[in-house]
Write the structure tokens for this entry.
Amino acid sequence: MFDLLVKNANLPDGRTGIDIGCEKGKITAVEVGITAVAKETIDATSWLAAPPFVDPHFHMDATLSIGNPRMNVSGTLLEGIALWGELKKLQSIEDIVERAMSYCDLATSMGIGAIRSHVDICDNELKGVQALLDVREQVKDYIDLQLVAFPQDGVLRDQTAFENTIRALDMGMDIVGGIPHFERTMQQGAESVKLLCELAAERGLMVDMHCDESDDPLSRHIETLSYETQRLGLQGRVVGSHLTSMHSMDNYYVSKLIPLIVESEVHAIPNPLINIMLQGRHDNYPKRRGQTRVRELRDAGVTVGFGSDCVMDPWYSLGRADMLDVAFMGLHAGQLSSQDDMAWCFQAVTESSAKIMGLEGYGISVGCNANFNILQAQNSIEAIRLRAHRINIIRKGRIIASNPAISTNLSLAGRPKNFDPAGFTTA
Ligand code: FE2
């Protein structure tokens, strides 16, 4: 007997009228017309059952801290970093845990099932590390939380950052981070990439660096990151996050760079909401978009996932843990408007990011973890168009969050009495 049976769901790959049976936390049947009995049955009424949203780039130590101790007036990345430096001194471990747990509640309600969070290790007390290790344990039954040891102030620029990176990894952080474009010089940036990749190789860890997060067309850290990935045999385990400078680079240079990234099996994580908000700030008009070359990277064979980066913190005042907002912005900024491109944008916040994070048992097929969302949309494109309402959030075969479907009552002569926002799709 199934513990949970979901009837009549559409799937992101286009299959319709599918039933999904779950037993002991796993998916044990995905087929049409299951008649077996279940302890609990949901009728999905042709709405989309999709695997959990995956946020491959976030900062959980800073989230929900907006206004503390003050607002970011200029709205720039650099004022955000300065403001974060002020907050770091003031906040306690308990403050960070409380905010992060609140964020995890929000993220869960929005269907996020996995998050990779960068955690600043540039305070000698390692408050963020202690807090997020605690949070990782507290949320492990419903969020796969990967933690990146992130030297926010520069692993070479900050005197104790390298030592703190090692301490953070020893304490149980999962991934080696970095920020080469924030080091003092381009050369120091390159040295930081080499140093941190060697550390990851020694320890058998993954690497995820904030890389070339600027509008500088001559920033070259993704080249160094790709080279070091090959040299150290880290293929498939390394991410370049942001890569915004690639937007502004010379086209000839990019024609050489992208094949190097492909050869190195380095993954890319643009963060569309933040990139479109923070980049191009030194431009008058025309003003650059500042999102990396998503289409070109994807078409060359790079795995590209979209991250959210920030929600209500020193860098970004908005956000609601909605990976469909992220996909929506990535789609627009990248002009990814064909039907295939839009469906791909949904993958960028689900399957592709799950692949980058190396999540096991992810997806809607027999043998996978019984983790999925039911969204009030008929397919993945409609889900992005509507930033679809979350009906049921299912983890390990159990409903852990739910909402009634949205339906508006109309009182207009000669018009229907009831209006379903998900009722227009023909595709
Ligand atoms: Fe970031």
The longest helix spans residues 186-203. The two ends are 35 Å apart (CA to CA).
